[in-house]
Amino acid sequence: MHKKYKKSLTLTLFCALALTTASVFSQNCNTVLQVEKNRNFKSADEDGAVFNLVLKNQSSAKNTYTIATKFLPTACNNDTYQKTSPNVSLANHLLSSESKSLSNNMVELLPGQTYSFKVMVEAPSNNDYGKWSCIEVSAVSSNCKEAATTVLSVYLADPTEE
């Protein structure tokens, strides 16, 4: 009878460990990152362009997000201003909704909480007019390594052309 209890105890411990491990690995990583009003396309003039973004933690746990931007060499133009020239890399800055720098580009959100922020894209140099810049914005949670991303498309209009 001792073997029977030992076998039963081992099976119970194995099931408990499997359920605990499964719940850790199946964490709810629901994160939404989007540009307000879905305005992912903008023209940059001599003042640059500003995109307003919203990050939402739709998971059931508190998350700390690292927000980053990355230049994309792939095309992101739209039907109105199609260009075949290479994309231009533009400097950009992450700012809070109050236009202050983000501390370490990190933000902590409770379940269901949203955070509004801006991406300020600097004005292009004169020789970059008539081209596109494509910028990927990502938010990676400390609890989930899958990033929520969106792409900002900036057309560098020539201010001398109407």
Question: Which features characterize this protein?
Answer:
162 residues; mainly beta; Immunoglobulin-like; 5-stranded mixed β-sheet; elongated
Q: Helices, strands, pairings?
A:
Elements: H1 2-25, E1 31-35, E2 41-44, E3 49-57, E4 63-72, E5 92-96, E6 106-109, E7 114-121, E8 131-141, E9 147-156
Parallel strand pairs: 2-9
Antiparallel strand pairs: 1-3, 3-7, 4-6, 4-8, 5-7, 8-9
Q: What's the gist of this structure?
A:
This protein is mainly beta.
State Rg.
23 Å
So how many helices?
1
What percent of residues adopt helix (DSSP H or I)?
Answer: 10-25%
Query: Which secondary-structure class do the elements indicate?
Result: mainly beta
Q: Please count the beta strands (DSSP E, at least 2 residues each).
A: 9
What's the CATH class label? Mainly Beta
In percent terms, what proportion of residues is strand?
Answer: 35-45%
Q: Mean pLDDT across all residues, rounded? A: 80
Number of domains: 1
Walk across the major sheet and give the strand order: 2-9-8-4-6
Instruction: Indicate the CATH topology.
Output: Immunoglobulin-like
Uncertain ranges: 9-28
Question: What would the principal axes of the Cα set say about the shape?
Answer: elongated
Order of helices and strands: HEEEEEEEEE
What's the story with the biggest beta sheet? 5 strands, mixed
State the end-to-end distance.
Answer: 91 Å
